[in-house]
Design goal:
Elements: E1 2-11, H1 14-43, H2 50-62, H3 71-94, E2 111-115, E3 120-123, E4 126-129, E5 133-138, E6 149-155, E7 158-167, E8 178-183, E9 187-191, E10 196-198, H4 202-205, H5 207-219, H6 225-259, E11 262-266, H7 270-273, H8 279-285, H9 287-300, E12 304-308, E13 332-334, E14 341-343, H10 344-371
Parallel strand pairs: 8-11, 11-12
Antiparallel strand pairs: 1-5, 1-7, 2-6, 3-4, 4-5, 6-7, 8-9, 9-10, 13-14
Length: about 375
């Protein structure tokens, strides 16, 4: 059973927005205090872990030193600190530049999580939040079952409620079709069937407006009220671009999952690609998020989703298997051996499909052998 997030817009009154902001500031203060305690303990050679810090919360709350109204929300903050250190030590072991957990600014700490029913719950079409009251919410779709947790999130000057629900798979009718997908910059997605999905380039389209907004921020005095207003305008524009990208990806992923039983995609190192000379274009395309959305929807629909090694998929001929070297500037695949002449991305998608089908068959054999 998978866990899915359902996001809804909140419409708090001015007084409720102030109360919510206070809860976030208290959550941020607790996060920074827990981080400072771990830093001090490490220097002294002591060990402080998640359980140790959670045991201290009861005494802190009883003394009135914490304004968070919900005890479970405070425990969730301790878990965030613990996960930050788990990730830090994981990067150290992997030999990656670790990046020690940092303190959080109150203006950048934008979410707090409550347990459903005991901290936040839906009541007569509103969201009742402990310590805040009933906040108007727009429930634009139904949730499959009662959620487990509710995260209240601030995005610029807007507030949202994110419900985490367990979702059972809802298998779609079999279509008998399989597809290989190749992502790119000229065409966002090329399929093994020969279809090309244009890259909308959301950020580049909105770049003129965002550049003006960013310049307005840079001209304002830091800490001033006018700068905060300029930052809010810039955040709103960037949030609009992100919403356009997210909406497009969800719709495209749904179309692919409905049409194909087996979906094979490239297992790209998007972090590495996003650090090169094409970083802006790669971030704008959103390959990683698109792939994740296809994977999530494929899991819900009980479709086979396979990631394959992309090595050589652009150079090998999908018709005869010959290697045809070409640079990124060459957009057509022309094989001198079999005469195949197609778009290079479609050729790569067909190679991805072959590898994906081989991987899917291998998985099926393993499952059959295990059951036997």
């Amino acid at each position: 059973m998978a866990v899915r997030a359902y996001k809804f817009r909140l419409y708090p009154t001015t007084r409720q927005a102030v109360a919510l902001a206070y809860q976030l500031s208290e959550a941020c203060r607790l996060y920074n205090a827990a981080l400072q305690e771990r830093r001090d303990a490490w220097r002294k050679g002591h060990r402080v872990n998640f359980a140790t810090q959670c045991l201290q919360l009861k005494e802190i709350r009883a003394a009135g030193d914490l304004g968070l109204v919900n005890a479970a929300a405070a425990h969730e903050i301790m878990r965030r600190v613990d996960l930050a250190f788990v990730a830090f030590f994981g990067r150290c072991k992997a030999g990656i530049q670790p990046g020690y957990p940092r303190f959080r600014s109150v203006r950048r700490y934008d979410s707090v999580t409550f347990p459903y029913q005991n901290g936040a719950s839906l009541t007569c079409g509103d969201l009742r939040i402990q310590g805040i009251g009933r906040v108007r919410i727009r429930l634009h779709r139904e949730m499959p079952r009662a959620p487990k947790r509710v995260t209240i999130k601030r995005e610029g000057d807007r507030w949202f409620a994110i419900f985490l629900c367990e979702v059972e798979p809802q298998p779609l009718a079999a279509t008998g079709q399989a597809v290989g997908l190749d992502v790119g910059l000229t065409s966002l997605v090329a399929t093994s069937d020969g279809d090309l999905v244009d890259n909308p380039r959301w950020f580049r389209t909105a770049q003129a407006e965002t550049r003006i907004a960013a310049r307005r921020v840079s001209r304002r005095v830091k800490g001033s009220r006018r700068r905060r207003k300029a930052v809010a305008i810039l955040r709103r524009k960037l949030a609009h671009v992100a919403a356009q990208r997210r909406d497009f990806q969800h719709k495209l992923a749904r179309q692919i999952v409905r049409k194909y039983d087996v979906i094979a995609v490239e297992d790209l190192n998007t972090k590495g690609l996003a650090g090169g000379m094409l970083a802006k274009a790669v971030h704008d395309a959103g390959w990683a998020s698109l792939t994740e959305r296809i994977a999530e929807k494929a899991e819900e629909a009980a479709r086979a989703f396979v990631r394959v090694n992309p090595r050589g998929t652009s150079q090998a001929c999908s018709g005869c298997g010959s290697v045809v070297p070409k640079t990124l500037a060459v957009r057509r695949h022309v094989c001198p051996d079999c005469g195949l002449d197609i778009d290079r991305d479609v050729n790569a998608a067909r190679n991805v499909l072959k590898l994906g089908l081989e991987e899917a068959v291998g998985r099926q054999r393993e499952v059959t052998h295990a059951c036997a």
